[in-house]
Design a protein that fits this description.
Number of helices: 3
Structural class: alpha+beta
Order of helices and strands: HHHEEEEEEEEEE
Distance between the termini: 77 Å
Strand content: 35-45%
Radius of gyration: 26 Å
Shape: elongated
Oligomer: single chain
Helix content: 25-40%
Length: about 150
């Protein structure tokens, strides 16, 4: 090792020692950083698992109106379900991103609507049974799809 390199190494060692004394690393920093890295993307992973497994969420109850919210971390859908006088249901929905199409799926039956500029959409006369909502967005020329888990009306 040359004399210059040795002097540089000694200087850096003294600087490290100085900063360790003046401004030490917090004791919990390493653990907090490991936790932050481990949980990065956790909500996206949960949304993907939810989309794959399609668990059923019961919406039936004594209330006349129910509110459901679904999100994949970047897009959220809010659904307000009410019972109509005819025994069916009305679903009013809001989406927080520009959506190209929104589908209500009940078995083989698929109904499509487009949201207005404020992200609002609605489905009238929805029969009782299992349903899910599928949202198609186009971001930067790339098509993205968000599907809610099935829920029971």
């Amino acid at each position: 090792m040359s004399t210059q390199n040795r002097e540089d190494a000694e200087l850096f060692a003294r600087l490290r020692s100085l900063w360790r004394d003046v401004d030490p690393v917090p004791a919990s920093l390493v653990d907090r950083m490991i936790a932050a890295v481990a949980t990065e993307g956790l909500s996206e992973e949960y949304a993907l698992l939810t989309l794959v497994d399609q668990p059923l969420g019961a919406v039936r109850g004594d209330a006349d109106a129910l509110t459901l919210q679904f999100s994949d971390g970047t897009t959220s859908i809010l659904l307000h379900v009410t019972r109509t006088a005819g025994g069916g249901h009305r679903i009013d929905g809001w989406v927080d991103t520009a959506a190209a199409a929104i589908e209500l799926r009940q078995g083989e039956r698929v109904r499509r609507v487009s949201p207005n500029d404020a992200g609002r959409f609605a489905f009238d006369d929805v029969p009782a049974g299992f349903a899910s909502v599928r949202l198609t967005t186009v971001v930067g020329g790339e098509e993205r799809i968000l599907s809610t888990p099935q829920f029971e009306l």
